[in-house]
Design goal:
Radius of gyration: 17 Å
Order of helices and strands: HHHHH
CATH topology: Ferritin
CATH architecture: Up-down Bundle
Bound molecules: hydroxy diiron-OXO moiety
Low-confidence stretches: none
Number of helices: 5
CATH class: Mainly Alpha
Number of strands: 0
Number of domains: 1
Mean pLDDT: 95
Strand content: under 5%
Largest sheet: none
Helix content: over 70%
Length: 169
């Protein structure tokens, strides 16, 4: 059985992951509006991953006999000054999510919830990757801030990565 404290914390993290889905989707739409389809597809693929993160939490809560509460989602931002700022928004958000996951792991330890502690190991490792991926893209985009041609090349490269991921499924 799950404690009320862990139940609440897991519901809040599900909400945070669903907001991540919303944010990536909003950034994807922003890039699509500018016909940077490689970036848009990359952000959309990330959004799908966020939905998977939320669903893992949803199922963990249910498997432990907890009650799922779907909290209201805020509208994410929809405008950015440029590609660098749009990618910076997701990088900043990933850092925030890492902080949340670490705090959640602390709560699970304090509550002696061993099952949730083990469950969260996956998220702790995943956040290393999420931050590194967003950080890499941020630095690439920033370096191309004054090069429309370079940005188009990167867009094409991102489209290729998405296609590779698609064929691997
Ligand atoms: Fe769910 O990892 Fe990104 O936010």
């Amino acid at each position: 059985m799950i404690s009320p404290t862990i139940e609440k914390a897991l519901n809040e993290q599900t909400h945070a992951e669903l907001y991540s889905f919303y944010l990536y989707l909003s950034v994807a739409a922003w890039f699509a509006d500018r016909h940077l389809d490689g970036f848009a597809g990359w952000m959309e693929a990330q959004a799908q991953e966020e939905m998977e993160h939320a669903m893992k939490l949803f199922h963990h809560l249910q498997d432990r006999g907890g009650r799922v509460r779907l909290l209201a989602l805020d509208e994410p931002p929809a405008e950015w000054a440029g590609p660098t700022e749009a990618v910076a928004a997701v990088l900043e958000h990933e850092r925030y999510i890492t902080g949340r996951i670490n705090a959640l792991a602390d709560v699970a330890a304090k509550e002696n919830d061993h099952a949730t502690q083990v469950f969260l190991h996956w998220y702790i490792a995943e956040q290393v990757e999420e931050e590194a991926t967003a950080d890499r893209l941020y630095h690439q985009v920033k370096a191309l801030a004054d090069s429309p041609h370079g940005l188009l090349m990167l867009d094409r490269e991102l489209a290729g990565r998405k296609a590779e991921a698609g064929t691997a499924d």
